[in-house]
Design a protein that fits this description.
This protein has 239 residues and is an alpha/beta fold. It has helices at 8-17, 48-53, 68-76, 89-102, 110-120, 148-155, 174-180, 213-217, 226-238; strands at residues 3-5, 22-25, 38-39, 58-62, 81-84, 129-132, 134-136, 141-142, 158-160, 184-188, 208-211. The chain folds into 2 domains: 3-119, Nitrogenase molybdenum iron protein domain (Rossmann fold); 129-238, Nitrogenase molybdenum iron protein domain (Rossmann fold). The chain is 35% helix and 16% strand. Helix 3 links the parallel strand 4 (58-62) and strand 5 (81-84). The termini are far apart.
């Protein structure tokens, strides 16, 4: 089986389960750190010719991260493409099962069972907080409706202000964010790398939780640790 991954989180999931199956991945696929495969460009601008030259049996993609035009171009030349859609934690588990099976996994890996167990064991939140969740800056963009990260946060007791917005990642001026920011601002370090020096200064006087974007937005092995890692960061910011 020869697989090319166009999604960093799926790259990690396949590499952890089926070492040697991946022959290509995007430039942004940084996990595992020692992954030695052909790099085929970015998630939004993959080099289709390079992918085809690798003669993959399967290309794995995501409806949000990858462009339909690139996936159609691969299909046009006879490459099989599996496209995932992940908007909730349970859907992430289902889609990971589907991807790994398509890539040749004979059994469900232990880490995926660990993901399911970790979230099933999560108690109902003792308290709930309302937050704004920027995911990009220049321009400012936030979590909107129907997102995987929004579902992760909701399960941890955080409701984000723009969950009912018509767009999934609306652009919102900083002044509006500050006006609508309630008790918490959640700043992930992916896809935009918010740090203590780049983000909290836009929200003076408001508690800011700097969280791991990999645990908030990736569906793969890190999802098993997400309740603990994210929960600790959120609790620290609330104090």
């Amino acid at each position: 089986m020869r697989v090319v991954s166009l999604v960093p989180s799926l790259t990690e999931a396949v590499a952890a389960t089926l070492p040697g199956v991946l022959v290509g991945a995007t430039d942004w696929c940084g996990h595992p750190a020692d992954l030695d495969v052909t790099r085929i460009g970015g998630t939004k601008n993959p080099r289709v010719g390079s992918i085809v030259s690798l003669r993959p049996d399967l290309v794995i993609a995501n409806e949000e991260e990858n462009r339909a035009a690139d996936l159609d171009a691969l299909r046009t030349v006879g490459v099989e493409v599996l496209v995932t859609e992940v908007r909730t934690v349970p859907q992430a588990v289902t889609e990971l099962d589907r991807v790994l099976t398509a890539c040749g996994a004979p059994d469900r890996p232990d880490w995926l069972a660990g993901v399911e167990a970790a979230w099933a064991a999560l108690p109902a939140p003792a308290e709930r907080t309302t937050a704004v969740v920027p995911v990009w800056r220049r321009p400012w963009m936030v979590l909107g409706r129907d997102t995987f990260a929004g579902d992760v946060l909701a399960r941890l007791g955080v409701h984000h202000v723009y969950a009912g917005h018509p767009e999934r990642y609306p652009r919102v001026p900083p002044a509006e964010l500050r006006a609508r920011a309630p008790g918490l601002v959640v700043l992930p370090d992916e896809p935009y790398r918010f740090t203590a020096d780049d983000g909290p200064e836009a929200f003076p006087g408001l508690p800011c939780a700097l969280v791991s974007g990999r645990h908030l937005t990736w569906y793969g092995p890190p999802l098993a640790e997400a309740p603990r890692v994210l929960g600790a960061a959120l609790r620290a910011a609330r104090r």
